[in-house]
Amino acid sequence: MRTQIQKLGKTLMGPLSIIVASGLLLGIVSILQNPAIVGEGLANAYAIQTFIGGAQAIVSTMFGLLPILFAISVATGMAKEDKEIAGFSVVIGFILFHVVINYLLQLNNITAENTSIEYLTSQGLSDIRAVEFGSVYETMLGVFTYRMGVFGGIVVGLWTAFIHNRYHTKQLPIAFSFFSGNRFVPIVIILTIPFLSIISYFVWPFFNIAINGLGSLIGQSGAFGSFIYGFSERLLIPTGLHHVLNQLIRFTPLGGTAMVDGETISGALSIFNAEMASPNMNLVVLRQSTRFLTQGYHPFMLFGLPGACYAMYKTAYLEQRPKIKGMLFAAALTSFVTGITEPIEFAFIFISPILWVFHAFMSGLSFLLMTLMNVAVGNAGGGMIDLTIFGILQGTYTRWYLCVAVGLVYAVVYYFVFKYVIERFDVKTPGRTNVADETEEDAVVVSNDNLGASILSALGGKENVVEIDNCISRLRLVLKDTSIVNERLLASTGSMGLVKINQNNIQVVYGGKVEKAAQSLKQEIKAQK
């Protein structure tokens, strides 16, 4: 089960890349709309307004497609083979899923017309009660249905992956052989999705109440809720399950629910993007959404972890400093610019529980401080790019300078805490290994020309590799036997750390180099067939 949850967490990252890119476009648009930055003439220029209108149309469409994007990402990510068939089938399944729910709602005389706020208020309901009742429903791809958000997409995606993995090789009797194999998958989806819809129709209202209740509890906990989120998210880093927590906070009621331009929006990142696109931005709502977003990351991603890298360099043995200098600098720069932190974190998390818990605590404290200081810097990256577009260039209302002020303190604290703990407990961070323990193999740095061959050799050969995948910073592998993996050889390929989930699942941390590593490994396996 843990393996499947790990895999699910990775699949949830698919739509995030699209939403982050859309968010960056939205951030640029908001800058061009700000006369204080670009001037009245440029802000009101016809060409600029045309660009803004087009960008907002694209972005609003992408946000509306989130549920089906999650469905496709989950189905293709969880499918073991023939992923394109799973992607084809899940689109059919997603639409039919909501069509059946729509039919059941109609049977109970629940329609878009009699659940609108205008109709409900005309029937004597208060504005608040009308909004509460009407927000239970929405129109998805032209179909009136329950407002299930990304949960609906995840449910359909998981069901499609289950059906696909079970039946994509199914062979039917000769008379029906045309429908065998991959062609059988969408047929089974069509036959089974109505049952999933019926179950969801009766179960979802109770689940919705529970999720909204938990979201309200988190919302009412205020700054303390921000601390719990930041602390938990960093503690989950080694397991990879932080992706699951992040997406739940960003795209479901667990991250809050708000009314933006008359529409109910759920999820911290969804609310933030909706407010950024709104002509009537509500700063109170915006600040409430950003308390779970990048403003909590900036102090330790831009300043704290680079300070930790400097501490690891200063505590390294003199003769080993030249060897690890480039690696630590690259890891610090990656964290500073992009917010990818795992190359640094994996240098100390597994060898020092003290530093791991300290880092998680400082993460929670960062989210807490940003909330208390009413900072309003959003998006989902955490690096300098996000701070620039969604903080500095947006103006002083974001209070971005507080991220920098707290970050400078974090740099000092991280440096001295890491330096003290490493020296006090002789933590074997990079550059503190005994020369006698090193082999000739450790001194060799694998070039890009033979990267795939070296990784494959370290994994025990192509016969040991069952499945290859990757997320933003990790190579996620299913092997026949993880015990034969050569960790020293993997380190020579640029690996920053290793996570053995069980005897068959392993994750290799490469940071920004992960796409190159995955591509090289796949090409090497193809070349050896």
TrEMBL record:
PTS EIIC type-1 domain residues: 1-434
**In the UniProt entry, which residues are flagged as the active site?**
471 (phosphocysteine intermediate)
- Where does the record say this protein resides? Cell membrane
Which terms are listed as keywords in the entry? Cell membrane, Kinase, Membrane, Phosphotransferase system, Sugar transport, Transferase, Transmembrane, Transmembrane helix, Transport
Q: How does it sit in the membrane?
A: Multi-pass membrane protein
Q: Where in this chain does the record put each PTS EIIB type-1 domain?
A: 449-529
Pfam families registered for this protein in UniProt: PTS_EIIB, PTS_EIIC
Where would you find the membrane-spanning parts of this chain?
12-32, 52-73, 85-105, 144-163, 184-203, 209-231, 292-312, 324-341, 347-369, 399-418
Q: Which InterPro entries match?
A: Glu_permease_IIB, PTrfase_EIIB_Cys, PTS_EIIC, PTS_EIIC_1, PTS_Glucose_EIICBA, PTS_IIB_1
| Stored PANTHER family | CYTOCHROME C-TYPE SYNTHESIS PROTEIN AND PTS TRANSMEMBRANE COMPONENT (PTHR30009), PTS SYSTEM, IIBC COMPONENT (PTHR30009:SF24)
The protein's name: PTS transporter subunit EIIC
